[in-house]
Design brief:
The longest helix has 32 residues. It is globular and about 45 Å long. A hairpin with a 2-residue loop joins strand 1 and strand 2. It contains 13 helices and 2 strands, in the order αααααααααααααββ. Helix 5 runs parallel beside helix 13 and helix 6 packs antiparallel against helix 7. It has one domain: Na+/H+ antiporter like fold (Up-down Bundle), CATH 1.20.1530. The protein is mostly helical and 303 residues long. 77% of the residues lie in helices and 1% in strands. It starts with a helix and ends in a 6-residue tail after the last strand.
């Protein structure tokens, strides 16, 4: 069996399955029931996740003249929802954790439909040869490897004591980390990802796109009159993406090995750097809400 087949058919799907199961084991219906009763935050999350971030990724690639592979990589990342790490960062930032969890649940559930459609629409005039993206097949696959384990995890968590479910969640998250390491090692070892040939600038564009999201999103949410805790939670949700879904989607695009390697690198690079990019949100949330940050007013301050 070739390494490419091992990654695409076994390791990456297993990584997504264990990640979503681990996330589901941390969630209970009561955690986000109140959010649905006051859904303003959810509507904002949907608008940002399904419209703002994907369109911003397309414009970013075109403004800076990136090749179609790098543009498509950003689009794939932008089309994915937030992940469990955004919920964890929101918790450490002392922000609105129920809103973060609810936004993750809703956008992840919709990703079964939205992610393939967004990629198909935005990439339609981008790729030299028309990409092969069977939307229905991808919906079924995402349902099986993302939504099903998420629902199972929530159901088990509802029927278990919090401590027991948390222990199993941590085990599945560790397993997911092991799969992610395997993806990186095998991709580099097989030559699928060729960091040396990419140069520095594509990495700069990826990180700068992430920083731009982190700078603009809080201002948009402030204009919508969100309080500090909601603003920080939604900003983290926008910046941190579920790259497991992105990695899962790449093999379905039927691209060359070189192009697939670039897309995988974009996903992995974005995922690795997003934690550092969200660190200011965590620090502002814990220590400096409503105060002066770096000589200027905090992004989240409400006058």
């Amino acid at each position: 069996m070739e390494i490419k087949d091992l990654l695409d058919n076994y390791i990456i799907p297993s990584q997504l399955f264990t990640a979503m199961l681990g996330m589901g084991l941390t969630l209970r219906i009561e955690d986000f029931k109140k959010v649905f009763l006051a859904p303003k935050g959810l509507w904002a999350a949907l608008g940002l996740q399904l419209v703002f971030v994907p369109v911003a990724s397309l414009l970013w690639g075109r403004v800076f003249g990136l090749s179609w592979e790098w543009q498509l990589g950003l689009i794939v990342v932008a089309a994915t929802p937030g992940g469990a790490w955004s919920n964890l960062f929101t918790f450490f930032a002392k922000a609105n954790v129920p809103l973060s969890i609810a936004a993750t649940i809703v956008t992840t559930t919709l990703a079964m439909v939205s992610t393939p459609i967004i990629v198909s629409i935005l990439a339609s005039d981008l790729v030299p040869s028309k990409i092969s993206l069977d939307i229905v097949t991808n919906m079924v696959k995402l349902g099986a490897f993302a939504i099903f384990p998420l629902v199972v995890g929530v159901a088990v968590c509802e029927r278990s004591e919090r401590g027991s479910a948390d222990k199993w969640s941590k085990r599945f998250i560790r397993l997911t980390s092991a799969f992610l390491i395997a993806v990186v090692v095998l991709s580099l070892g097989s030559g699928r990802i060729k960091i040396g040939s990419y140069g520095l600038m594509p990495i700069v564009y990826i990180i700068s796109f992430m920083i731009a999201l982190a700078l603009v999103t809080p201002h948009l949410l402030r204009l919508m009159k969100f309080h500090d805790e909601d603003n920080i939670a939604l900003s983290i949700e926008v910046v941190m993406r579920n790259i497991n879904i992105g990695l899962f989607l790449i093999p379905t695009l039927a691209l060359s090995d070189a192009a697939s390697g670039i897309l995988a690198f974009v996903c992995l690079a974005y995922g690795g750097a997003s934690a550092m990019c969200c660190l200011p949100f965590l620090l502002v949330g814990r220590f400096r809400k409503g105060s002066m940050v770096l000589g200027r007013r905090a992004w989240f301050r409400e006058d």
